[in-house]
Design goal:
heterodimer; A: 229 residues; mainly alpha; B: 256 residues; 7 helices; 74% helix
Amino acid sequence: MWRDLRLLAGDIGLVAAKDLRIEWRARTTLGQVVPFALLVLVMFGFALNANRPTLELATPGLLWMTVLFATVVAVQRSVAVESTDGAGRMLLLSGMAPAAAFGGKTLAVAVQLLAVAVVLVPGVVLLYGAEIESLLLAVVTSIAATAGLAAAGSLLGAVVAGVRAHQTVLPILLLPVVAPVLIAATRAFEDALGTAAVNGWSWVGLLAGFTAANVALGAVAYGPLMEEA
Amino acid sequence: MSRPATGDPTTPTGYLGGPARTGSRFTFWLGAATLAGFAGVAALGLLVVPADDVQGDAVRIIFVHVPSALGAYAALGLTAVGSVMWLWRRSQWWDITAHAGAEVGVLLCGLMLVTGMLWGRPTWGTYWEWGDVRLVTALILFLVMVGYLSVRALGGPAGSVSTRAAVVGLVGAVNIGIVNRSVNWWANRTLHQQSSLTDGKLEDMTLLTLILAFVVAAMAIWWMVMHRFRIGWLERQLADRDIHQAVQARRAEAGR
């Protein structure tokens, strides 16, 4: 039992390290996803007429909306890595448990999204004038929300892997599914930034539940999906 | 129209046998009874049931809205079960049932949302209330299931499409749970009234009409799912026949 779990954790680490190494060498997250996310923040500023009170009020929602857009880009990139030359199929032929491959890809996307959030939070402080009142809540929310986004994204990314229209179908599938993450992360950040009187920790619980459900679904469904891709 | 003989490869289903039509004597009478039921619910709901003291005539929308809501959950639940059975047993029967359930479920979910908005305008003073969690999650469920139908329309090998759609169906099932429980999880954020049916607050005639509406809705769903199932079944048969004919043609070429 413990040996199996250690093996699973080792394989998850291997796949995550592989994906992150590819991302580091290609510089997609740093060179494209992060600038894209910052650009969206600036565009929201224009869209809301650079009205400081409105921006401060809307900061949590705009922040997580931007992370959501970044999720679509990051997941599409993650899918493309496995689709090229049948790499995903080879990964499973190596004898690795599909759940481990799914866990590794989810972990890699989560790390990238966390990196995006780490850049965006100072971005909203500087551009929108936000102030962080509870750093711990902001950090825990960011970890829980990016994990949930990565799990749902990797699962639905596997659904569209190998499909010609995957770039258009993925947002249609992903955005409604991750709506609870957007709601919960926004509410929790409202508490962390002090823009609304809500209990942010209860929303973190919802994020944890969402993440657990999608990780469980992904662990079961990833194998059959990759066989069909 | 005469029924094609089974065993004739030139007919859509002759190659593998089975019915070549989506209708049967049973579905004809079921459809006729459903239409009569609709007429009965309309007559009772519009002419006999009295207007509500608070909601006025708007209360009559519940005869469409509530059965639509329960029907949508039931049809999408069928999709969830069918999705599990496809992933677990590779059951083509359940896969086609899941697809049929999703199409009917999306239709009823849309009807639930539209009638809910029409009821909300005179009752809440607005068509849409973002603070109402049940309303918003029902919309999310609708959008997830529209995504399910998009995956079904992607094309490709039948088994591949079925597996992809089954996973999306399961994700949708998780959302059904959220829709059902949301009013309790975030009770302080909903404008939805608690169930009048279980509270026993409905008048006798209103209750009778609502029960009749449930029965008629169940019959309508049954009728639609059966027809959609048979269309799906015939599509598979047609695809199999095309493959069979293509194989025969190649064999004939090779033997020449």
